[in-house]
Write a structure and sequence with these properties.
Layout: H1 2-13, H2 20-23, E1 27-30, E2 36-41, E3 47-54, H3 68-75, H4 85-94, E4 98-103, E5 108-115, H5 119-131, H6 137-155, H7 158-171, H8 184-189, H9 192-202, E6 209-214, H10 218-229, E7 251-256, E8 262-271, H11 279-290, H12 296-303, E9 311-317, E10 322-331, H13 335-352, H14 356-369, H15 377-390, H16 395-398, H17 400-405, H18 409-419, E11 426-431, H19 433-436, E12 444-447
Parallel strand pairs: 2-6, 7-11, 7-12
Antiparallel strand pairs: 1-2, 3-5, 3-6, 4-5, 8-10, 8-11, 9-10
Length: 455
């Protein structure tokens, strides 16, 4: 009954789809230095937000500079040529504004927002943080301590640790499988000069994307263009993506978590990138397999057998590659059964595919939830920036409903059969080895020490 109500609600949401005018209500330009800029006017609130995406992250780190992307983003607001960390914090607080920065696998993000009547002051602070950070050694030592504490906490958290373990298993020596904060040993020896050099080489306008959202006039627009037109490339950024080595079949990477009452389970394999033409077909397939309460995996693992409270599947598509991912947990005595039921369910799903009813409901879900990811100018800007980064046309947003409607049952089942490979599922476990080893006959088990993931 709950699922029926859920589906009815999703169907009702489809009528709320965004108009083409809403999805194209922005100006786009490319500056001579290679920076792409989106201007999105929004008069609903007296606010102004500037967000910048810069293509550096784990993918631009090698063995020698792991963790530097995180160090750069953490330190940029902790001291500039004009202001100390405390002075910057006071300036931002005085305006009732906020600044955030974060480093990811493929790109880093920097955002400032506040009241539009403080546009000049906001732009001044943003310029100061972005273009004249000093990376003080004193502040770096504080960041290093916080990062090392975070790493130690993650080593003690099975949920966080298994995701690190599974990425390491799937992506092998690729930066996609590395720990974003770097190793403990690397952090200890990190110095300010290394951070400055990394910033110089990787914080460049070419390939970067800026969005300006909120209330602004033509004068402010011109000032923003002039400010970012002065941004020059000062170094050469390099990515370290390489082909991923295939994983031997029936491989399990296990971290022995003695005394744990349950075992965390991750399963998956390498898949296609975000730009792949079958992206939406695979999204539908993963939704039916393990994307909601009435999915195949939930029925078999939770409803019929009570092996876990929850289980889910999805595709995670990146710029160069992607992954198919299954996540669950179970009691230690049912690990073997959970693995078997999950693999058998995936095999049967690939063999039989989805039904017309599955397709109809999945399409309704995708179209019903689509307006939510675009309900604000900020969320529209974020989607435009990410699509641009992944090389996907902005028409993806305009044509979303038409593209979903055009997908046939055969399209989805062909994609499922091609890109979900049950026999190639690599498995990561965190649980008490002594309690679960006897259930894993037929698997090639490699016991991993947690700290080895940070080397």
């Amino acid at each position: 009954m709950k699922y029926l109500i859920f589906i009815i609600c999703i169907f009702s949401l489809v009528s709320c789809k965004p108009t083409s005018q809403q999805l194209s209500n922005y100006d786009k330009m490319q500056l001579d230095n290679g920076l792409t800029v989106y201007f999105l006017k929004d008069e609903s609130l007296p606010k102004l937000q500037l967000s910048l995406l810069v293509p550096f992250g784990q993918l631009t780190e090698n063995q020698d500079n792991k963790g530097l992307s995180s160090a750069v983003t953490s330190l940029m607001r902790r001291g500039t040529a004009k202001s100390s960390y405390l002075e910057l914090a006071e300036k931002i607080e005085f305006l009732g504004a906020s600044f955030s920065a974060s480093a990811g696998e493929e790109f880093s993000s920097f955002s400032i927002d506040g009241l539009s009547l403080h546009a000049k002051e906001l732009m001044g602070i943003y310029k100061e943080i972005l273009f004249s950070p000093t990376f003080p050694q004193k502040e770096l030592e504080r960041i290093k301590k916080l990062s090392m504490d975070s790493i130690q906490a993650s080593l003690a958290d099975p949920v966080k640790l298994i995701d690190i373990l599974h990425s390491d298993l799937l992506f092998s020596e690729s930066p996609y499988g590395s720990w974003p904060l770097g190793s403990l040993e690397r952090l200890k020896n990190l110095n300010s000069n290394e951070v400055k050099e990394y910033y110089k080489n990787h914080f460049n306008p070419k390939g970067s994307i800026l969005s300006v959202i909120g209330q602004f006039d033509n004068s402010t627009k011109k000032e923003i263009i002039a400010m970012f037109s002065e941004w020059e490339t000062k170094g050469s950024s390099k990515t370290y993506f390489s082909e991923i080595k295939p994983i031997a079949k029936n491989t399990i990477h296990l971290i022995d978590n003695r005394g744990a009452p349950q075992t965390q389970i991750r399963m998956g394999h390498i898949s296609v990138n975000r730009k792949h033409p079958d992206y939406l077909k695979l999204k539908i397939g993963a939704l039916v397999l393990g994307g909601h309460f009435n999915s195949r995996l939930m029925k078999e693992v939770r409803v019929k057998r009570g092996l876990s409270y929850t289980i889910g599947s999805y595709f995670n598509h990146k710029k160069n590659i992607g992954e198919f991912h299954i996540s669950t947990f179970t009691k230690n005595k049912t690990v073997g059964e959970t693995l078997k039921v999950t693999r058998d369910t995936v095999k049967e799903f690939v063999k039989t595919g989805i039904t017309e009813q599955d397709l109809t409901e999945a399409k309704a879900f995708l179209k019903g939830t689509f307006p939510r990811i675009l309900e604000t100018s900020s969320s529209l800007a974020k989607n435009l920036m990410v699509l641009n980064f992944y090389g996907v046309s902005e028409t993806y947003l305009l044509d979303f409903y038409k593209s979903v409607d055009a997908i046939s049952l055969a399209d989805v089942n062909t994609a499922i059969a091609k890109y979900i490979r049950p026999d190639e599922l690599a498995i990561s476990l965190i649980g008490p080895r002594a309690s679960i080893k006897s259930q894993l006959s037929g698997y090639n088990i490699k016991t991993i020490k947690p700290k080895s993931l940070l080397e």
